Amino acid sequence: MSNVANAVAPPASLLQRGWQRGSSIDPRYLIAFLITVVLVVAQLRYHMVGGYQRLFLSLAVCVATEALLSWFDRGKVVNLLSAYISGISLTLLTKPQGGAIWPFLIGGFLAISSKYVLRYRDNHLFNPTNFAICALLLAAPARVSVLSHQFGNDVVTNLVIWIFGLIIAARVGVLHITLTYVISFLVLNGIRAAVLGQALLPELAPITGPMYQLFLFFMITDPRTVVKGKRPQIVVTVLIAVAEMLIRVASDRGWPLPTAFNAAPALIALWLVGPVAKFIDLRRLARRAPPSLSAPAPAR
Amino acid sequence: MPFLAAILLAMRLDEGPSRNAADAAHPGFTLRDATAAAGIHFVHHRATFDPLIAGIEPHVAAVGASVSVADFDSDGLPDLYFTNSRFGEPNALYRNRGDGTFEEVGALAGVAALNRPGDGVSMGAVWGDFDNDGREDLFVYRYGYPVLLRNVDGHRFEDVTEKAGLRHWINSNGAIWLDYDRDGKLDLYVTGYFRDDIDLWHLKSTRIMHDSFEYASNGGKNHLYHNLGDGKFEDVTDRMHVGSTRWTLAAASADFDGDGWPDIYLANDYGPEELYLNDHGTRFVLSTAGLEAESKSGMSVTLGDAFNRGRLDAFVTNISERGYIFQNNNLRLNEMNDRRRFRNVAEGQIADAGWAWGAQFGDLNNDGANELFVANGFISASHDRNYWYAMSKIAGANGRLFEDAATWPAFGDASLSGYERSRVYLNRGVAGWIDVADRVGATDLYDGRAVAMADLSNRGAMDVIVANQNQPAVLYRDTPDAANHWIAFKLVGTRSNRSAIGAEVSIEAGELRQRRVVDGGSGFASQNDRRPHFGLGKHEWVDRVVIDWPSGTRQVLTRPQIDGIVTITEPTR
Predict the structure, then answer these.
(1) B432/B23 Cα distance (integer angstroms)
(2) Could you tell me the pTM of the whole model?
């Protein structure tokens, strides 16, 4: 029976082969592909970039900063894909006052340099884009806002982004983080709505927006800044969702928070919880590892 | 160190310029609140709607305060008409007595009682002599049936809507008069906001809102009515291809591309602006003109020669709120003649006027360059509760959440961009525009909607009238630098429409060039003084005046008398 079965087993399909091949690709290439898809779709259909000079400046600053700092730090220029991803996501998320382009210059610099300044045991603690956009929102709320509205509200566009995003998240091995956050958001904010006596749909609505797409596929799932291990990753993801829910409760109550907390609660939650979790994780790993392995890792 | 420096630099840049430019200290004019002294006591009352949308009624009912200017009694002085938006609350017609005061004659004239159940509530009005009898008639657009009021004798008006064929339910926030086919009779373009099949007092569904935050196209249809000349109008919207269903809040008309035919520029809420180019009066063609690349929330559009290039540029207001959204206003330079596009050059202060509504260009200091007055503020209610956080939940929501009023978080008594002060931008040419509102005296914190400019005392000063939503109207008396000269023109059409709406006037005085259009509606829910006013600065004469009449006639004058209003009648052949 098994021989017969073997004899008639079809060869791996194109999809399967592609899936298998995908697992051998550096995750950054897949993420770079996804952010490029988002950029192209958002720009071609909805002109979301708001001026190509913003894109070019962001990319140029991110790439130049990465090249320069890595050369200073490690004596060589590292792979610049991460800078490319940061440059594009920063362009999409940053909405400046007037024609100001300095937020892209400073934001790009902050994003990449945060990787070299804010680190522990040779690991950076913040997702670069998350750090930069939160820093800008907190430092310059009168000049910078975050993408807080739709990409044109088109089902097809959103489906394309979600499908590509979920496939790539699965390939990169972070799908559980994305799904955990989505489920946590829905459950926690459903509870929040019920407890505060608010209508349910408006409280769940934000996660359908583009800011959350960028958050779910490019920030909270950043392989370099998530903690090690599937279970800890799920725990930290839930904690970030809890932090966001608490920020939203405070906003619902009208507590005097910086505008950034009200405008981008998910981004701020990650900004607050992510680095602490990463720090604790690195510390935990260092304690567990044999002395010879607990020293800071050499350049990546 | 550079890392920290970058953060500190961002904090520093957040504070804006360290000091205002020197010329902001001497803007060359003042604005004095003369509302009470003028006897204007108009207070706008917002509408109330079906309880189904009670949760977001403050938002839906956040328009309707309008002001439009015309000399309805032909005494040579501009009068003011304000609209109200609550059932039973009257609109007001303020007759200019000429001594700096006004008397309210709306009820006597028959233009006051226009807010009635079954008919709708007023959203704005535009004046135009549609029957060319020398008296300014009044078109009032409503959430409901519009009203055409014919000026009978300079004192009384009669409702001729039914006879004119204009009694069609339109939830309209704007209308303009224009003569699109140059037949000498004023046609009417009426914009739609909510769909025509929606009765806001008897809703069948709560899915009445915008289907997109950025590219909404499920709004009310705009309508173009052709004036047949026998007191009747014909709906030619589809034939002329101008039936946009974007959520149009304002329209303006001028000959942007210099072909002699009036075009239509639209400011659309939750969508990109639209430019309809007039193809010789036979049809309109929707032009891209660079407008589609930025989709925002156009609240108003006003036309003016921003940089003395002899062209009519467009200023479109949008929404900005710190930390949440910077849609930024657009100052679009008209490059239609050469590059077939408008180019947005708004940056710095002029780009962010908060939640900006009506705006008007006007030379407030008579130095020869236009200033900009921008009214703003959306809903001023609680000082403690802010709707922006709630708005951010729904603004990013995909699917049909945004479209359904029932999905929106309830407003309660929250403010949304409330208590914002008006902006008055001083034009410094290439040095940019700078806000001098505080310095010149425009300090009110009302929720401004409509702005109109008029020389109310025929003294060469552009007074500013602001209609505020659910609040009192304000009249700012302008006192320009007395050393500056000026000239204004009263135009009387003969082959063109009698009101001369659509006439474009250009002046040349030495190196100074300036162009204005006689508007049939401009800004948001407003209409300016019919007489184009030009500041001349220190120029003691005007070399040349060119008038392009709507009929196509070009009239040239040399060395007209300055520091006064010059009456010009269109040549009959």
Answers:
(1) 11
(2) 0.92
